[in-house]
Amino acid sequence: MNPMKSRLRSLAGAAASAALVVSAPTALMTTAPAAAQARGDLALAVAALRSISTMRANFVQTDRNGKQLGGTMTLKRPGKIRFQYQKGVPFLIVADGSALTFIDYQVRQVQRWPIGSTPLGAIIDPRRDVARFGKLQPVSSPNIVSVEVRDRGHPEYGIITLVFVRKASAPGGLELASWAALDSQNTLTRVDLSNHQYGLAVSDGTFRFNDPRPVNRR
Q1: Phi, psi at 28, each rounded to 5°
Q2: Is residue 209 part of a domain?
Q3: Residue 17 parent element (H or E)
Q4: Domain of residue 29, CATH code
Q5: pLDDT for 28-61, tens place per residue?
Q6: Does 213 score more than 50 pLDDT?
Q7: Among the listed residues 17, 4, 8, 31, the one whose alpha carbon sits nearest the alpha carbon of residue 143
Q8: pLDDT value at position 73?
Q9: DSSP string, 177-194
Q10: Residue 198: enclosing H or E segment and its boundaries?
């Protein structure tokens, strides 16, 4: 498989049979929070995700070998997200509320997965219960909240670790700064966000795509 395509597929989280644990960045993992604070911060993280109506941010995606791609992420709850990659990258990832779709315009290929069966379901799937499946991770700074989300009953869904920073102007008082996703094929991807914008008018058409497949082969 083309290495770049493999990196992007990791973000889509293709289902397979096994998953391994991915933790928050090593630099954040030094001090365990008190139990009461942990419960409170988990609740804050859940509230912050649920408080986002729309969001747009720049993203930088890094694979396990340190190779990076950038672009713009647009999110609309419930269930919609779009990763528009930088110019010259022939890939697109969109979720329309029910399925996450990976489009490869170079080879005219389209692949789809239910959003709930991918690591990104923790962010965009309203049925994915972060409060139930999330576990606060120890961090070194009181301004950071890190939550690992995995459904042990469904290891094929993969694992995602969400990292928030405390920011009063962000929905729920926490801003999603990055995440590390490990899909069930053991492919690790980190995504860092910047230049967040909230409450934008985003049409549902943003989450549609031009299907590159020949009509008689769809």
Answers
A1: -90, -10
A2: no
A3: none
A4: 2.50.20.10
A5: 333 444 554 556 889 999 999 999 999 999 999 9
A6: yes
A7: 31
A8: 97
A9: EEEEEE-TT--EEEEEEE
A10: strand 188-198
As for how many domains the chain has, the answer is 1
Residue 103's alpha-carbon distances to 40, 84, 109, in angstroms, are 39, 11, 6
At 23, the amino acid letter reads S
**Is the residue at 34 inside a domain?**
yes
Spatial separation of the C-alpha atoms in residues 140 and 42, rounded to whole Å? 16
Determine which of 30-34, 89-93, 118-122 has the lowest per-residue pLDDT on average: 30-34
At a CB cut-off of 8 Å and minimum separation 6, what does 76 contact? 53, 54, 202, 204, 206, 207
Q: Which domain holds residue 155?
A: 18-195
Q: Tell me, yes or no, whether 215 lies in a domain.
A: no
User: How far from each other are the two terminal CA atoms of the chain, in whole angstroms?
Assistant: 22
SS (H, E, C) 128-181: CCHHHHEEEECCCCCCEEEEEECCCCCHHHCEEEEEEEECCCCHHHEEEEEEEE
Query: Between vectors from CA 161 to CA 4 and to CA 54, what angle results, nearest 5°?
Result: 80
DSSP 8-state secondary structure symbol assigned to residue 86: P
- Tell me: the pLDDT tens digits for 140-160? 899 999 999 988 888 888 899
How far CA 3 is from CA of 64, 68, 126, 158, 190, in Å, comes to: 11, 12, 32, 20, 16
67 within domain boundaries: yes
Instruction: Find which of 14-18, 23-27, 33-37, 48-52 is predicted with most confidence, using mean pLDDT.
Output: 48-52
